[in-house]
Amino acid sequence: MPSRERFAGLPVVARAARRDYFAVYPVRTLLTSSVPRVVLQPLFLAYLGYVTGGLEGRRFALVGACAYIVSLATVVKAADALTDDLAEGTLYRVRMSRPGLALVQLTRCWIYFVEAVASAVVAIVGVCAFFGEWSLMASLLQGTPILVVTALSTTAFGLAVTAVAALHPASAVLTNLAVYVLLVMAGVIAPLSRLPWPLRWVSEVLPVTHGADALRAFADGRDWAVSALLELLVAGGWLVVGLMLLKRNDSKARRLASDGG
């Protein structure tokens, strides 16, 4: 199929993704459930940092948590879209579409990417205001482009998680497990130096790790560009892995005549 024909339906997919998103998460739901969560979870993590490292530990965890919060939308919610297709019996239509499963799922992710960046901004404002960290708030808001890069990285990671977990009977457990792995291994609450050395190597290829480092460096007035570039490289790697896994899932489902893949 010519490339032009494969991409022709993606604008329709993008519009449908927006409609589906607001059907599941209307504005009232976002304000009464999503907004409190993206403030209270980083607040809790910041207190954990305070317990383990005092004010310095609180600042470390606060910044890390504001970077980490993007994964809730780009990993968990994005995977739910494919799980819903399977449950509602519409997944075969996605597989039969001209763009194919991988490109459709990637296109759908734009709305969760937007939510992720917005969630991080809300978390920064809410948590920094709670602690009276006004200068830190201003610095982190200026570092929003770093959050955009981090959201891109977790979006790519989310594609890989979706390919493995979304069509599994325990999809909710697996997607939440993925974000907890990021929480523990991406240096969100405590420095990576506290991890056993084999896990430090794994953390280097996980999203959020370098994004959180870049955001901390930006807030402290240190060089942050290298860490941001590493986060972009991680995003590119996970994008390749995610698309390949989704295509493999699609091919296997077609061969076995099964929606589960």
Could you explain the architecture of this structure?
The protein is built from twelve helices and no strands. It has helices at 3-8, 10-24, 27-68, 71-88, 91-96, 101-131, 134-142, 144-165, 171-185, 197-203, 209-220, 225-256. The protein is 82% helix and 0% strand. It is an all-alpha fold and 261 residues long.
Question: What's the topology here?
Answer:
Elements: H1 3-8, H2 10-24, H3 27-68, H4 71-88, H5 91-96, H6 101-131, H7 134-142, H8 144-165, H9 171-185, H10 197-203, H11 209-220, H12 225-256
Q: Tell me, rounded to a whole number, the average pLDDT.
A: 90
Rg over alpha carbons: 19 Å
CA-based shape = globular
The low-confidence parts are: none
* Helix-and-strand structural type: mainly alpha
| Individual helix count | 12
Q: How do the SSEs run, as a string of H and E?
A: HHHHHHHHHHHH
User: Which range best describes the helical content: under 10%, 10-25%, 25-40%, 40-55%, 55-70% or over 70%?
Assistant: over 70%
Proportion of residues in extended strands: under 5%
Oligomer: single chain
Give the N-terminus to C-terminus distance in angstroms: 22 Å
